[in-house]
């Protein structure tokens, strides 16, 4: 059994960035990182563009101009202006090559087919030059750039519809247990509704990991071994819940050993989530989480979250940890460090009732976990304590 600190550092040191490439349509690329530089296929803007509503001028010494037409955004015609001539123009419209400045409409007085400007204006004033943002062939966004809504908007404005990105991991969720039935089915005596798969699936979805499959197996050794072998071969990350302890019908650990999965660590000195397994086989990472739902979710946020961020080559890979003032009391039994379900708000944290590892009702109200070190036996009101902020 190892400490929490060692377990976290071991996960960090054993996970490498995935760095597999995938082609994504631009509208489905949000949250990914570019795996290649993206060069611009066009100049942006692709023409000299008016920065505002006003008048495009062919400058001369006088403040008076003859008005010869109008250009709206999207118009394709390009009138030829002589010195002393102007056209009405609108924001985003193409400025004729023969115009050399745009005067904003607030500084122009119009009188029929002529205008008078308030003052002289400099060359190219209020004109966005061709390729001001990026020129054709230049790098628009560099390899490794995260595709935020703004980045997607920018690339779309260049006419780009597909991008090469670092692939997100393919993930298999496995739940085990003869006692589990699907929600919606009759609940007969001795059975419980299976919730871990839906819980962890939505935890993954909330983090924008969508390549996830769910596999449910009964407490049968051969079935467990065969399913684990298949998902380990087919996925980058395998997360199993239940069956990792040492009971007569806990077959996950035995199957992993027979499949020659490297055990990096098994059991962490913590509560909840002591029977946590972390291992590897070739390029696949395997976590076996406790079957109790609250313990499984706590281990997901403390350990699996780090593995996912490391696979995606993120700079920040742990959930935020802050100090907050306790508005609750708590008495800890035993010497194991503990993660407590809690509600954090504006520098204060409330420790909730119902900390049992099987209880999800309290977790459903939580937005944080309070970390209680092993050498701390109690928490009092106004104590400054460590809080892990959950991504919810």
Give the helices and strands, then pairings.
Elements: H1 4-14, E1 21-25, E2 38-39, E3 49-50, E4 54-57, E5 64-71, E6 85-89, E7 101-104, E8 108-111, E9 114-117, E10 127-128, E11 139-141, H2 149-157, E12 162-166, E13 171-176, E14 180-181, E15 192-193, H3 196-206, E16 212-217, H4 221-234, E17 237-241, H5 252-258, E18 262-266, E19 277-281, E20 284-289, H6 293-311, E21 321-326, E22 330-331, E23 338-345, E24 348-351, H7 361-365, E25 368-372, E26 378-379, E27 384-389
Helix pairs in contact: 1-6, 4-5
Question: Brief overview, please?
Answer:
The protein has 392 residues and is of the alpha+beta class.
Inertia-based shape: elongated
Q: What CATH architecture of the largest domain would you give?
A: 3-Layer(aba) Sandwich
Number of helices: 7
CATH superfamily of the largest domain: MoaB/Mog-like domain
Family: Belongs to the MoeA family.
Keywords: Magnesium, Membrane, Metal-binding, Molybdenum, Molybdenum cofactor biosynthesis, Transferase, Transmembrane, Transmembrane helix
EC number: 2.10.1.1
Transmembrane segments: 285-308
Description:
- The structure is a single chain.
- The chain has 392 residues and is α+β, with helices and mostly antiparallel strands.
- The chain folds into four domains: 4-19 and 168-311, Molybdenum Cofactor Biosythetic Enzyme, Chain A; 21-43 and 132-166, Molybdopterin biosynthesis moea protein, domain 2; 49-128, Molybdopterin biosynthesis moeA protein, domain 3 (Beta Complex), CATH 2.170.190; 321-389, Beta-clip (Beta Barrel).
- Helices cover 19% and strands 30% of the residues.
- The chain contains seven helices and 27 strands.
- It has a six-stranded mixed β-sheet with strand order 7-4-6-5-9-8, with no helix packed on it.
- A hairpin with a 2-residue loop joins strand 23 and strand 24.
- Helix 1 (4-14) packs parallel to helix 6 (293-311) and helix 4 crosses helix 5 (252-258).
- The longest helix is centred in the C-terminal third of the chain and has 19 residues, at 293-311.
- It is elongated.
- The protein starts with a helix and ends with a strand.
- The model has no long low-confidence stretch (mean pLDDT 94).
